[in-house]
Design a protein that fits this description.
The chain contains 24 helices and 17 strands. With 645 residues, the chain is an alpha+beta fold. A hairpin with a 2-residue loop joins strand 1 and strand 2.
């Protein structure tokens, strides 16, 4: 629902994060050693300052290296694409726009503001001693691991904060939209229309299609691409990951008992807690800009709750991004100390709280949580047997971490020791040998696991792999996840001869022509009915549809909602492709269903945020004009979405 708002919001938030938090890619470029004339070329200009090809290349190399390090399974081809490189240039322009604007506005960051910002970083905050003072020596050591000095790092943070101030006024102005303005957007989504349908099924026109060899041959010649076989293969592969290593490990009962005794306090049952939470999500792999923006949002909510704790359920319903619990005011129900699916940091905080207390921000892989402890049930003592399964799992995970490196080396060597087969190596290492058919050179939409990894597929379909059907080298497809495979069968792409597939071609020809006849008949009827509505007669059952309430296919609903209703009845056509054609008659325009009033209310904050983000974009575009921004290289076309098969 509200697809355009969701899409718009996501795109705008990506830009917002890129604008607010720079990655400082350009600060080290002033002394960059130019190597040839091409590196001197100007690719963009901001406030009279040039961005050169050399600076752009270096910035993109740095960004690509950072992404490869943080996401080992990321497809390198995507990072090296023209689209990815252009995105780096846009990011550099955005950063320099904010840098120039901050300089012209003479924005200043106080020492106190800088100190608060530094201590918001958990890594730096953890360097404080018992007296609350920062351990300067450990602080220097931490920054040295990133090739930074305290002065250099603090200068970058000051720059980031001053750039952030450029946008703070626009950001602070968001969060509210006049009701009349909101209604202009929301009304069309909840408005209902009473319609009738006339369907034109191609099956009714099959008998009108002349079938002869000449017609089938002509159809085949005109649509040869539809009758090509795609390149595909049957493959076998083995995966070495942590679960696979754990399956090779046996833990003795005595080891588990010893572990229980050493960690007995951890396994004491702390009873159950009932809690509610508000979650502000941070997408997996999000950059620091995204994380900082999410944290700022969560901090603003926490500040409201500190002033009025009674609003927790209200804010959870309207602001929490956990769709499962938001409608219930954030209620998570009763939670045990070892409840599966909840992050350890969340559980640790919850079981250290007092009843009625609201936590500070709790950061997990999901984002930032604000927790309210609403009820406590008593603890009960449990012994070794109650925790045996959990202890076995923990010990296997610990031992697997230690054993993985050894098995990875044996796996990498073993694929070349006997390159014509994987079965022996898989059995030796306790790995499952998996097979898959209809595998293509590019991953099919929805594919999961190693066969979704472009690097692995590239290795499988390399020329040597195709000709010799030997094992690939081991490919890293994820964190602690290696795969190797080989082609068992390979079929090159080719044209199917008409003689071999004539029945299928004949069927396709008949379906194609029948759909064309159905459409032609429908278009003639549509023109006639639009001129003379009475000619449509009784079109049968009436149906009430809206953009938020309908059981009909989306194209039909879209046609019903786009019909001009100045004069009723109104008629619209819907091309359903091989499914034929439909004519929609709109008889009445009805107000929104009262049952959707709560849903409508929930969309108001999203709409306000979208407005604020649009204002932010407009403000940034104004800054670009004032600073005479010019990007001198053309923007590449978007990457086409791969088609299965």
């Amino acid at each position: 629902m509200f697809e355009f708002i969701r899409k718009h919001t996501k795109w705008m938030m990506v830009l917002l994060f890129a604008l607010i938090i720079p990655s400082f890619v350009f600060f080290g470029f002033e002394n960059y050693q130019r190597m040839n004339d091409a590196s001197h070329a100007t690719v963009a200009v901001v406030d009279g300052q040039k961005i050169t090809q050399a600076e752009w290349d270096e910035a993109h190399r740095s960004e690509a290296d950072r992404l490869r390090a943080s996401q080992p399974g990321l497809d390198s081809a995507l990072l090296d694409s023209p689209q990815a490189k252009y995105a780096t240039l846009e990011s550099m322009v955005q950063e320099r726009v904010l840098f120039a604007a901050a300089s012209k506005l003479k924005l200043f960051v106080s020492d106190q503001r800088l100190a608060r910002e530094l201590l918001n970083d958990p890594a730096i905050a953890g360097l404080r001693g018992p007296d609350g003072k920062l351990d300067e020596e450990r602080y220097k050591q931490l920054l040295a691991t990133q090739n930074l000095t305290p002065a250099g790092y603090e200068a970058m943070v000051r720059t980031r904060l001053s750039q952030q101030q450029v946008l703070e006024g626009v950001i602070a102005a968001g969060g509210w939209m006049p009701e009349n303005s909101a209604n202009l957007v929301l009304n069309p989504f909840f408005e209902r229309r009473e319609i009738q349908l006339a369907g034109f099924d191609p099956a009714r026109y099959v008998s009108q299609v002349p079938v002869n060899d000449a017609a089938v041959q002509a159809f085949y010649d005109a649509h040869k691409e539809r009758f090509r076989t795609t390149e595909q293969a049957t493959v076998e592969y083995a995966v070495l990951d942590m679960p696979a290593v754990e399956r090779t490990i046996t833990v003795s009962d005595q080891d588990m008992r010893n572990y229980y005794e050493q960690n007995k306090e951890r396994f004491a049952d702390a009873g159950q807690r009932r809690a509610s939470h508000i979650l502000i999500t941070v997408p997996a792999g999000a950059d620091q800009a995204t994380r900082d923006a999410a944290r700022k949002h969560a901090e603003a909510l926490l500040a409201q709750l500190r002033q009025d704790p009674a609003r927790f359920a209200e804010l959870a319903r309207t602001q929490s991004q956990d769709a499962t619990t938001a409608t219930n005011g954030g209620d998570l129900g009763m939670i045990g100390r070892n409840t599966a699916g909840l992050p350890q940091a969340f559980l640790d905080k919850l079981f250290g709280m007092e009843k009625g207390q609201i936590s500070d921000l709790v950061q997990t892989d999901f984002g930032y949580h604000i927790i309210q402890l609403t009820d406590v049930q008593g603890a009960a003592q449990q012994g070794f047997e109650a925790h045996k399964a959990a202890i076995e799992t923990e010990l296997k995970q610990q031992m697997a971490q230690q054993k993985f490196g050894e098995l990875a080396e044996r796996f990498s060597d073993g694929v070349f020791r006997n390159p014509a087969e994987l079965k022996t190596l898989a059995a030796e290492l306790g790995l499952q040998l998996q097979t898959a058919s209809n595998v293509h050179r590019t991953p099919a939409p929805g594919t999961q696991g190693p066969l979704a990894n472009r690097n692995f597929l590239q290795a499988l379909f390399a020329a040597d792999s195709i000709s010799k059907k030997q094992n690939t080298q081991t490919i890293e497809v994820g964190s602690n996840e290696l795969v190797a495979g080989r082609l068992v069968e390979y079929h090159a792409a080719g044209q199917q001869a008409l003689a071999d597939i004539k029945p299928a071609v004949t069927q396709a020809y008949v379906q194609d022509r029948a759909a064309a006849l159905a459409k032609a008949d429908a278009l003639a009827k549509l023109k006639d009915w639009q001129a003379n509505p009475a000619a449509a007669g009784d079109m049968g059952e009436t149906v009430v549809v809206s953009r938020v309430q309908s059981t009909l296919v989306p194209p039909v609903v879209d046609a019903a909602m786009r019909a001009k209703t100045g004069k009723l009845p109104a008629f619209e056509g819907v091309d359903l492709g091989n499914q034929g054609y439909a004519i929609v008659r709109v008889n009445q325009v009805l107000p929104a269903d009262p049952a959707t009033s709560e849903l409508r209310k929930q969309q108001q904050p999203q709409l306000s945020r979208a407005l604020n983000e649009a204002q932010l974009m407009a403000y940034f575009e104004t800054l670009k004009k004032l600073l005479k921004v010019e990007i001198k290289v053309p923007k590449p076309a978007a990457i086409a979405t791969p088609v299965a098969g």
